[in-house]
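Hey,

Quick one before I head out. I ran the complex with NAI overnight. Inputs first:
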Amino acid sequence: TRTIAVSGSASGIGRALAGLLRDQGDKVIGIDLAGAEVEADLSTPEGRSRAVGEVLELSGGTLDGAVACAGVSGLTTLTVTVNFFGAVELLEGLRPALARAERPRAAVVGSISGTQPVDDDVVRACLEGDEPTALKAAELSLEKGKGRKLYPSGKSAVAQWLRKAAVGPDWAGEGIALNLIAPGVVRTPMSEPLFADEKMFKVMNEAVPMPLNGYADAEVIAETLRWLISPANSHMAGQVIYVDGGAEATLRGPEV
Ligand code: NAI
């Protein structure tokens, strides 16, 4: 049996992934605010270290996989504290346990939004690992009415962290495959308000055009994550994989 830690396991993509993994016989240690094996708040350093400690206890100190799905959207600094620091510190905290496994794999859920305009101060502070400064910059961004840049900032920062960390000595060097899935629009409780509001719906369609099969269900993203953390994925590292119905290619064009 493989043991996999999944944050955000109580809803949406994380919940769908936990279901797929349990169905194939894996032991899943879910992490969420409530309704999970480990109940912890990933928006604070204390919550993150408690989450790591409890996962290590439940896993016996060895983990075959870890996936950071937990996330928040909207005009809030949580898009930085949860989506960046909550993901990165959780994965870094679980890394020693992953390194003990035979074929360890890890993944993060980013977003197509990581390609949108960002607040440079927020992204810089994230990449420097300076949470108080990132939080201050995020609050300033909200005060200036530029809060819409915060979600893209957290998602861009986590993708940039991944590109570097995944191929370094701590991850690839320890035999741990680490990659990121960037979804387009996925039908989950998070995106529900976008579908409910006519104006938001229009903005979303323009921002994220999905020529292939339209909006995705959570299971679609979960299936890709399942493969990424499977033993079959022996050689993919540091990749940002867009599972977005063609949105990224549509928006960015043919240059790679
Ligand atoms: P969701 O809202 O259905 O699930 C997110 C889960 O994260 C919830 O169970 C929530 O309780 C948990 N969470 C939030 N804050 C937390 C905290 N402080 N500590 C612990 N757990 C916390 O959302 P969904 O759609 O499943 O999102 C999963 C990931 O996918 C997120 O990172 C999101 O940014 C990303 N994503 C979602 C898209 C969509 O259209 N739904 C598109 C692109 C990316």
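The beta strands are 3-7, 27-32, 38-39, 65-68, 105-109, 177-183, 186-187, 216-217, 240-243.

Talk tomorrow,
K.
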